[in-house]
Amino acid sequence: MATRCDLLVIFVLSLLVALTHSKTLKRDVKALNEIKASLGWRVVYSWVGDDPCGDGDLPPWSGVTCSTQGDYRVVTELEVYAVSIVGPFPIAVTNLLDLTRLDLHNNKLTGPIPPQIGRLKRLKVLNLRWNKLQDVIPPEIGELKRLTHLYLSFNSFKGEIPKELAALPELRYLYLQENRLIGRIPAELGTLQNLRHLDAGNNHLVGTIRELIRFDGSFPSLRNLYLNNNYLSGGIPAQLSNLTSLEIVYLSYNKFIGNIPFAIAHIPKLTFLYLDHNQFTGRIPDAFYKHPFLKEMYIEGNMFKQGVNPIGTHKVLEVSDADFAV
């Protein structure tokens, strides 16, 4: 009679055989072969065989990760970056319904992101930065409820930031910098409970910080706020200090005016503060020079007058006369 140990070995071997002979879902095979046909020779040379998840002695296609679900294998990750892919966004990608990660960054993709992107309900990471994508950011991205990381920076997107992005409850990192976005940043983004990093720098955005944080409890987890190189205006409201998780505030090269509120110096974890090249006036509150974590504060290119406030130094922060406009 077979021992318990023998039965366990037989079971494990049977499982391995089953996994080895699992077939890749035809839907995913068809989609990957369509993508292969559209991407060109730079990818084709490393995508060998008919099955993207591997077939016999052939390994999975480079950049393709699969997992087994029941009797089939499905594609869960597609990472094809920095290979100079030229052409439109491969729409067949939106048929890979089990994708959790899609990374096509640092290529030369053009045209719009198709609205069918909203079909990828399991997607957690979408990385399309450093391409030449155009048109508007499709509101259908707001249907990707599991998304945690969204990288759309360094493209040529135009139009407004869709407020539908506020419907992404798990979103932690939102990168929109270096595009051609216009209009106001939707205040609805402030309702994202897990958002840690918001970068909308180097666009053509307008509006005020007061509008952005107008909801009670806005941006409860936000650590890094990059709004530099836009056309934002108005003053810095004292209510910004309610964002107690802030560590980096980057407001350089806008049209901000008025005094720097005393309350901002009491954001507990503030480490880097960039206020340069705006139209700020008045004093620099002394509390900034006593902040225990503040390492860098840039204030040049404003309307502060030399001598209106003592030039303060402490163990990490230094501000010199050169930082003031006469």
Q: Helix- and strand-based class?
A: alpha/beta
> Low-confidence parts lasting 5 or more residues at pLDDT below 50?
6-20, 308-315, 320-326
Shape: elongated
**What is the CATH-assigned architecture of the domain at 158-317?**
Alpha-Beta Horseshoe
CATH topology of the domain at 158-317: Leucine-rich repeat, LRR (right-handed beta-alpha superhelix)
* Biggest β-sheet strands, sense, barrel: 12 strands, mixed
**How many β-strands, per DSSP?**
21
Radius of gyration: 25 Å
Number of continuous helical runs: 4
Instruction: Give the CATH class of the domain at 158-317.
Output: Alpha Beta
Strand content: 15-25%
Domain Leucine-rich repeat-containing N-terminal plant-type: 26-67
Family: Belongs to the RLP family.
Organism: Raphanus sativus
Pfam family, one: LRRNT_2
Record the SSE blueprint:
Blueprint lengths: L3 H17 L2 E2 L1 H14 L1 H4 L19 E6 L2 E8 L6 E3 L12 E3 L4 E4 L13 E3 L4 E2 L15 E3 L6 E3 L12 E3 L4 E5 L12 E3 L4 E3 L2 H4 L11 E3 L6 E2 L13 E3 L4 E4 L13 E3 L4 E2 L15 E3 L28
Parallel strand pairs: 1-3, 3-5, 4-6, 5-7, 6-8, 7-9, 9-11, 10-12, 11-13, 12-14, 13-15, 15-17, 16-18, 17-19, 18-20, 19-21
Antiparallel strand pairs: 2-3
